[in-house]
Amino acid sequence: MRIAAGLAGTLIIGLAIPSAHAQPAPLDAALAESVAVNGLAGAVAVVADGNAVTLSSAGHADVSTGATFTPQTYLRVASITKTFVAAAILQLVGEGRVQLDAPVETYLPGLIRGEGIDGATISVRQLLRHQSGLPEYFDDTTEPPNQPVSPRALLSQALTKRGVAPGHLVPVYTNTNYVVAGLIIESVTGRPAADEITRRIIAPLGLTHTYFPAAGDTGLRAPMAHGYELVDGRREDVTAAEPSGEYMAGSLISTSEDIAAFIAALLAGRVVAPAELAQMMDTVPWPLHGPGFGYGLGLTSIDLGCGVTVWGHGGDLAGYHSVMATAPGRPAVSATFTQGAPNVTSIANDPRFAVLTSVYCRG
């Protein structure tokens, strides 16, 4: 049933039974305002509340053709990948094949070495919670690769830099942690991390629109959302990207519908066992993002300031800025803006925070 048409609107799919948690209007308004005020190309969000799946969108999935978003529009979900990786590690923990407090050296002997870096002093838990002290493998001074690159090459790049002592209370977020986590999955299982996560999580949950692109596959499957950024004041299409440069830190491609289904399943205990889910939800404060933020094992907690704390993760790559979240007894949401908002100085003026408050703080 089409509820609204044009550049901003809502589509309700499946068993669309009205409920206290499935009113789309505030989310429609949040997306439309963010796109209009910031001059963005587009935004798409799905709210999954039981059997009701509600799509909200604004702008276009492709500004050159005027294509609109659907629940199955493919997107780069960036660091949301990390939650899939952490969940796979926690499954291995539940099977007794990985120990969270064992040193990385146990699973990758001799590999994590550098100035101020020793895999024997870094635990798996510290990797997943960004407390390892490992440096970032690329930063603002490093161009992303435009040719296929191996995860060990990414790690080698990080190991040319000086690390800091592991175990600091405040997480220092680096993608290198999840490159190493992916290598641990491969070492323990004997299979590529992408294949193992697909076998353990993506396929069992029926996430048929979620996949890891092969190295060299710089596009997305159709229908896809193009990603855009401002370059010298002009909007440029930045959709194409070499996925191997992100590896298990952020290469996953999915849809709003699949990501909402994933975070709902994870918090409902259908991905990892209760004991392992409790480990994922064991957070430390993450003041970089604000007083209400915590980081666990591939999961972020956010106190929205309205009596609701949500669990999920964000993701940022050129042209794709995403968030997924849910809370006990609440719907799950997945949202992506296909262009970065200018002048975002804090979480408070990040359009994704407006999405969360529109869904969870409606009174």
TrEMBL record:
Q: GO MF annotations for this entry?
A: hydrolase activity
Signal peptide: which range, if any? 1-22
Domain Beta-lactamase-related residues, every copy: 28-353
| Alphabetical UniProt keywords | Hydrolase, Signal
Output the superkingdom of the source species.
Answer: Bacteria
Q: Per the record's keyword annotation, is Hydrolase included, yes or no?
A: yes
Q: Name one Pfam family in it.
A: Beta-lactamase
Keyword set includes Ribonucleoprotein? no
The name this protein goes by in its record: Serine hydrolase
Organism this protein belongs to: Mycolicibacterium iranicum
Which taxonomic lineage does the organism of this UniProt entry have?
Answer: Bacteria, Bacillati, Actinomycetota, Actinomycetes, Mycobacteriales
